[in-house]
Design a protein that fits this description.
Blueprint lengths: L2 H18 L6 E5 L6 H9 L5 E4 L2 H8 L5 H5 L2 E5 L6 E3 L12 E3 L2 E2 L4 E2 L4 H4 L5 E4 L2 H13 L6 E4 L15 H10 L4 E7 L16 E6 L3 H7 E2 L4 H13 L4 E8 L5 H13 L7 E8 L1 E2 L3 H8 L10 E3 L5 E3 L1 H18 L5 E3 L4 H8 L6 H15 L1
Parallel strand pairs: 1-2, 1-3, 3-8, 5-9, 9-10, 10-11, 11-13, 13-14, 14-18
Antiparallel strand pairs: 4-5, 6-8, 7-12, 15-17, 16-17
């Protein structure tokens, strides 16, 4: 089935699923330049009850929106449909002077209906709207061109950096296009990162092991207080269990981890909860990363979430300018997590996100030589796993 046929198929029940979601799209702002795109027309058919306002100048719309009381909260309920001009596939920005894994980001949708107090998008995006880019043919062509260059034996790409990969899948079936696309690529691997349990739309797909479905996890109290409009821990693990039954490789990301009274018990119970239901042999990787944030995020988050407790720990500016827990705190958290995970399965592939060699050595007793070395370790892990 071609792209248009697939989208038409999903748009038939998109309206029903939109009514079942824990959020509502209140209004669609339609960029006139994107109005005739087949993706746009299918999207509008899937949301027949949502008011549409045509926009001639989206820059003016965005500028005006920034002057209201809570543009970030408003943007999560209002959809902008437009074109993306420029590259939509980019290297993960990583952190200077830290080891990074060579991941590439696919920008298919920007912003998120979820509302996590620590989300860096609050201070990063200059467009508060939930934004859907309708020129999908250009996106697939760009991914195809990138993979055809064969720069690496295996390239890891994912959609979960500027939006949740699956939370909006019933309305924007991005993953339902990308999963079959990557199933036929020898040197490309897709990762879908989510805090949702919206896996029903992808369970029937022939993924051929080339798509990893990953969950960001925290203890239930952290999810309840700091991760609004997300699935519960139990729901996330249940969704992971469904995906494992369908043969999807799984990933788990303990990132960000928070230092709070009782964190040891909280995170250890999360590990136990996962592997009571998940076979560790089907987990391709697990990442660990301490809470970190750019300086301007604090004021934004405190204003939007007055009761948040994420800034109550010992956080100090690091070499990259981001505020982090003291090195001793982070390494203690990592060492204990590694210990608990190794008790489950000594063969689990565990890595640190945006950390220095010194922290790696303190946490694991060894460290990758550099970012290229870590990327090589990923390639070897995938070869053995698949």
């Amino acid at each position: 089935m071609d792209l248009k046929g697939r989208f038409a198929r999903y748009s038939e029940f998109g309206f029903y699923l939109n009514c079942m979601l824990p959020f509502r799209i209140e209004k669609i702002y339609l960029d006139e330049k994107a109005e005739k795109d087949w993706v746009t027309q299918s999207l509008l058919r899937s949301l027949p009850g949502v008011p549409v306002e045509r926009v001639e100048d989206k820059r003016n719309l965005i500028k005006q929106s920034l002057h209201i009381a809570d543009p970030i909260g408003m943007g999560k309920r209002n959809l902008l449909v437009t074109h993306f001009y420029g590259r939509r596939l980019k290297p993960c920005p990583g952190t200077s002077r830290h080891i990074c894994c060579g991941y590439h980001v696919i920008n298919a949708v920007t912003n998120c209906t979820m509302d996590c107090s620590y989300c860096v998008l609050q201070g990063y995006l200059n467009n508060p709207f939930l934004t859907f880019y309708s020129n999908w043919d250009d996106l697939l062509r760009e991914i195809e061109d990138f993979l055809s260059m064969k720069r690496n034996p295996l390239s890891r790409l994912g959609t979960g950096e500027l939006s949740d990969s699956l939370a909006l899948e019933s309305i924007f079936p991005v993953s339902q296009f990308l999963i079959p696309f990557f199933a036929g690529r020898e040197n490309g691997l897709l990762e879908l990162k989510t805090k949702s349990a919206m896996v029903d739309p992808i369970l029937h797909l022939d993924h051929r092991g080339k798509t990893i479905v990953s969950w960001s996890l925290n203890p239930p109290g952290v999810i309840r207080e700091e991760e609004r409009n997300t699935a519960s821990l139990e729901e996330r693990i249940g969704a992971a269990e469904q995906c494992q039954r369908k043969g999807y490789p799984l990933g788990f990301h303990f990132d960000p981890m928070f230092d709070y009274p009782g964190w040891e018990e909280g995170y250890r119970e999360v590990v136990q909860s996962i592997f009571e239901r998940i076979d560790p042999k089907g987990v391709i990787w697990i990442s660990l990363g301490g809470f970190r944030y750019p300086p301007k995020l604090r004021a934004i988050a405190k204003d939007r979430f007055p009761d948040t407790r994420i800034f109550s720990g010992e956080l100090f500016p690091g070499r990259d300018g981001k505020f982090r827990y003291l090195k001793e705190i982070r390494t203690e958290m990592y060492r204990k997590m590694v210990e608990w995970l190794r008790e489950v399965d000594s063969g689990l592939f565990i890595y640190l996100c945006m950390e220095s060699r010194e922290v790696w050595e303190d946490a694991f007793g060894w460290a990758p030589e550099n970012s290229s070395h870590l990327n090589y370790l990923f390639e070897e892990r995938v070869k053995r796993f698949l």
